[in-house]
What we know:
Blueprint: H1 2-9, H2 13-60, H3 65-70, H4 74-89, E1 93-97, H5 121-124, E2 129-135, E3 138-148, E4 154-163, H6 164-167, H7 169-203, H8 209-225, E5 229-234, E6 239-242, H9 244-250, H10 268-276, E7 280-287, E8 290-298, E9 307-314, H11 319-341, H12 348-359, E10 366-372, H13 373-376, E11 387-394, E12 407-408, H14 415-422, E13 426-428, H15 435-438, H16 442-451, E14 455-463, E15 466-475, H17 484-521, E16 532-539, E17 547-554, E18 560-567, H18 572-589, H19 595-615, E19 626-633, E20 638-644, E21 650-652, E22 658-659, E23 665-666, E24 678-682, E25 688-692, H20 704-717, H21 722-733, E26 742-749, E27 757-762, H22 768-783, H23 789-806, E28 811-817, E29 820-827, H24 847-854, E30 857-863, E31 866-874
Parallel strand pairs: 20-23
Antiparallel strand pairs: 1-4, 2-3, 3-4, 5-6, 5-9, 7-8, 8-9, 10-11, 10-15, 11-12, 13-14, 14-15, 16-26, 17-18, 18-19, 19-20, 20-24, 21-22, 21-25, 25-26, 27-28, 28-29, 29-31, 30-31
Helix pairs in contact: 1-2, 2-7, 11-12, 11-17, 12-17, 17-18, 18-19, 20-21, 22-23, 23-24
Amino acid sequence: MAVLRSVLGGRSVAGQVFLLVVVIVLLLVVAAVVALVLQVRHDTTQEARNRSLAVAETFANAPGTVEALRSPDPSAVLQPRAEAARVASKVDFIVVLNTDGIRYTHPKPDRIGKKFVGTIAPALAGKSFTEEIDGTIGRLVQAVVPVKDPDGRVVGLVSAGITTKNVGGTADRQLPLVLAAAAIALALATAGAALVSRRLLRQTHGLGPHEMTRMYEHHDAVLHAVREGVLIVDDGGTLVLANDEAHRLLGLPADAEGRHVLSLGLDPGTADLLASGRVATDEVHLVGDRLLAVNQRTTDRAGVPPGSVATLRDSTELRALSGRAETARERLNMLYDAGVGIGTSLDVTRTAEELTELAVPRFADFVTVDLFDAVLGGGQPNAVAALSRTAMSGIRKDAPLYPVGERIRFVESSPQGRSLATGSPVLEPRLSQATGWQAQDLERSAQIVTYGIHSLITVPLRAGTLVLGVVSFWRYEKQVPFDTDELALAEELVTRAAVSIDNARRYTREHSMAVTLQRSLLPRNLPEQGALEIAYRYLPAQAGVGGDWFDVLPLSGARVALVVGDVVGHGLHAAATMGRLRTAVHNFSALDLPPEELIALLDELVGRIDQDETEDEGSAPVTGATCLYAVYDPVSRRCTVARAGHPPPALIHPDGSVEFPDVPAGPPLGLGGLPFETAELDLAEGSRLVLYTDGLIEDRERDIDVGLEMLREALGRADESPEDTCRVVLDSQLTARSSDDIALIVARTRALSADQVAEWPVPADPAAVGEVRAAVSRQLAEWGLDELTFSTELILSELVTNALRYGGGPIRVRVLRDRNLICEVFDSSSTSPHLRYATMTDEGGRGLFLVAQLAERWGTRYLPAGKVIWAEQPLP
């Protein structure tokens, strides 16, 4: 009973909770009753709508309703039916009315023939509807439904209605039951609240609000006595509670409670954490000279006011350990960056620069790299040779260190000299006291010390047994000298860089070898000839040696062959293959073959090379070889061109217009099985023929069509000189670093004038030999070449005699005066004479021997309708 009195008295916390629960339950019961009454009213209205609409539609659609409306006296027919239906359906009225709203039926007969009370417009439009009105029989819900004839026309209306009080009687009968249920619920809730309050009373030991307050004060006193800082911050960032330890650790002002944490003068990291209220576990913050571990949790759980509580623990003794861990992490990051950031290119100098850029300022204030000269050229270092300062980086530009490019010989007592001699790193923590270092250069050493550089680490760049150079790390800004841990880090850093520098050195050596091989295979000087004025350019790729080549080949009859080719790929293999193809072109051109036949032979050769090298697993086949071969005749001014997968030539006419002649594009060399075609170009004297490789017009960043258009524009701007044409083309086409070789030939055509050519037909008569000799003698006299009369007559006598004896008509003789005197005999036979030694008893066989002795060169050239035997003599 005492417990119950305490609960009901409201003096304890349990009693207050009991009263609060009872009030809440009572409010809930009242709300439930009100809600039920409202729901019943809503259901009553809805039921009235549904019933009235159903009755009205049933009556409107009943058989005979339409015929009754059309009868002379609708009321007499419909009134009995309406009343019977009203009684059966338990509605208050069923009224039938015409389209003007005049009643035909009504429960009260005196109202028949009067105007209907309500809205009929929607029904006249053919729609059924319901409405609530205050009618003559009270508040009711009525439905109005149209009556339609078979044609769908509205011929009348039916309205049925029911008052809401007749429908809502159920609610009145249910209300006592609802109130009884509410009373039972209130009793049960009161009993439950009493049980909860009794349990709460036991847990609080019957303490009232004052006793609870006093207990909290004792708890607060204990809280402030612990040696761990406690902070409570509300959800707005205001400091609610801070115990004494928190005040001491954070240096809080006396009036800190009630102020925002951002205004307490705390370090930004700690203040932001406390203001954010985010969860933190052992988060370390440096506050003054203390290292605090902060734990923070939110308090908005289980009904606790929103906010956060943070605890602070002094972890200053962990500061040194944390610092060492951070240093180790930074060093690991730097070594990782060295692995991915050093050696991005195969250039020795650039790799050395990447090392210096990585180490400054993360590890040292200045870093220098000195390499042996042989290393820069790709060779093996010489321990007694001088070094060159290859790279240097620093936090300032005015340091008195040796500049880049300076050649240095380190004395044996210097740290660099000792590193090079022993292959081990050297630490000089205090340069001002290192006499051996100062012996390197007394004046410069003094300048360095005066400048403020005070500590040095030198590490040799070692690749296996080779010492490539030395790296020096200089400290200037940080006053603490280098230590042994940093010495180990420097050694690891340089070791990783040494691998990349050695790779770059090896690549440089191989690249130099390939360039040397390639240049040795390319023409060094163009041969003398008078048909073309030629200028050329050859630029190797920056990334590696390719297989582009070109050639100028003098042919018989003052003709000149131009050839450009390309072996796809880079390196020694491409250069060697290029040399083989160039040699083959030289040999095939000596046979005076037409361009299409020469290209076909070259295609067959490449196919055999591919087959041989495919069988050798250590070799790669020649893939992507292309070639363009052109022969220009200065007499006819005709150029015959054939190409195998090569870009088309460009032609600059004497008026400066540029075109790309339509030369049939054969397949690349080595595919085989397909014929090659030629194009005949008639070139006016002074035209410029431009041959090139695809490196000039193709690039990763542009399409070949764009490159051809750029080439066209550049050729249109060039002067008539082939040299100027080459210069303008390369200036406009090249990127900063070409990814492929470029070969370019510009040939301006010349023509032999009519006074340099003499030609005579030869009758099929041995006596014609004398006429030919006489004609040649007269022509040589006109040219002022009387010294060559005897030898020329003898050469032509032998050649014409052979043509008459072994060849076939027609026979022609042509003499050309160019750089040499050229004699040519044409006949229709395809049989070529051969040089041989005649025995003492032979009557013939000595003619060609005499020709070979008198002429500088001689040979046979085949034509579609015969052959030409020619001989050249040097002009006096």
